[in-house]
Amino acid sequence: MTRLELRDIRKNFGALEVLAGVSLDVGAGEFVSILGPSGAGKSTLFQLLTGAIRGEGEMRFDGAPLDGARFAFMPQRDALMPWRRVIDNATLGLEVQGMKRRAARERVAPLFAEFGLAGFERAWPAELSGGMRQRAALLRTVVQQRDMLLLDEPFGALDALTRAAMQRWLETMWQSHRWTALLITHDVREAVLLSDRIYVLSARPARVVREVAVPLPRPRIESAALAREAAAIEAGILDTLLGAADPIPDHSMETRND
Amino acid sequence: MALIAAFAKFFPAALAFALLLLAWELYARLGGIAPTVLPAPSRVLAQAWENRAALADNTLPTIRATLAGFACSLAAAFVLSALVDFLPRLRRALFPLLIASQTLPLVAIAPLVVLWFGFGLLPKILLVALVTFFPMMVALVEGYAATSAEVSQMLAAMGAGRWRIFWLARLPSGMPYFFAGLRISITYAVVGAIFAEYAGAAKGLGIYMLSAKNNFRPDLVLAAVAVSSALTLALFGLAVLVQRLAMPWERAGRDRKAEPSGHRP
Question: Which residue of A218, A222, B50, B143 is surrounded by the most CB atoms within 10 Å?
């Protein structure tokens, strides 16, 4: 069952054309990634979805035009508030929805163990490591119990080892919860590891240049045979990305906030 | 251990201060300078003790004026900075006026304010507010603006309105800036009150200094100066203490950074 449908989404900032007709679907319980070079307009797409900016095109959810509060959004950096303890950061979305702080804490507290944060409920965010901060940010995102998760390069700021650990952890978490999720990333391996389907975007102005299904069984981290199949898919996507991009090498996939 | 560490931290400053007093004492005693020109620190101390009743009697009104003026200034800074945050046009209207207010020479303005508002508490409140308001106002406005765009976007996506975003993100983001401004402006507060009293008051350290000077008693002027310095230092210490209590997360972050081996998976 299709939940989110985007049809021919366009967005210009003045003379700058950012999105040149992006169409995509996300089904119920599906993990979909948007993969594209930096500056392609991936984050602009999320801003359109959360209503922060307006663009052209059709956005539908469960068949009806998209209205406000469908998404729980996880921004690029963890965006934890340093002045709130970890548990109060986790309850932020519930408090904004009008839940009393006490009730929100009771709802969130049992989830700390599953998110690897047991014992850190009363800690300040500054006392956590990078991986723990991202898990706290994801906890804050999922407890909002919205229809769909929007994850904007959630592991982009982590060191390589922590990032790999977090990707594996997220895959296990997703397997037990089956969230409907849309992930933005420019990490091909991350997209292949986590997604059911991948939309590959061109450089700006962004269009979908390829849609890749990833039919690998889960969990995907365990076997060597799976790793070979994943590597083949990764290679195919890289060919698309680098072939579509400007041939000058320093224009490729540098990390930059877009 | 903490006591020894604190002692080691303050020892250089204490030593420098003691040496300065010692040099002053020796110069005043051995230089044959009349105590009506430059009294030795020991004489200032002795006279301060002898006149402690009069000093205390004049210190209380100064404390009252300082605290009342500073409280008004603090409240005004919070209210106006919030208004300016919601109405950027008001900011463009107000800031040139506020900056102009900081160019007024206190020596000229203080007697006029006393002339207009009399010898009561009001002119003192106004003058203390005039010198303390601006640093806090600027700090708060800049602090709100320092809110991370990602936090604002996330709150908006959660369904928070403008007022919610101000309360949950912009106000707390402004706190480190606010306390930086508070520490600056609190050091002006006592001086502002004394200026106001100097221009005209029934009682207060300012008027006490003026009459001591007119009676050729520099020792009593300096005794009053010492009291006002102590007041300022006490207020500064109070501001630092309030900051620590209000922002416990700041120290948590610093403790972690001081200990690089404390990495958790």
Answer: B143
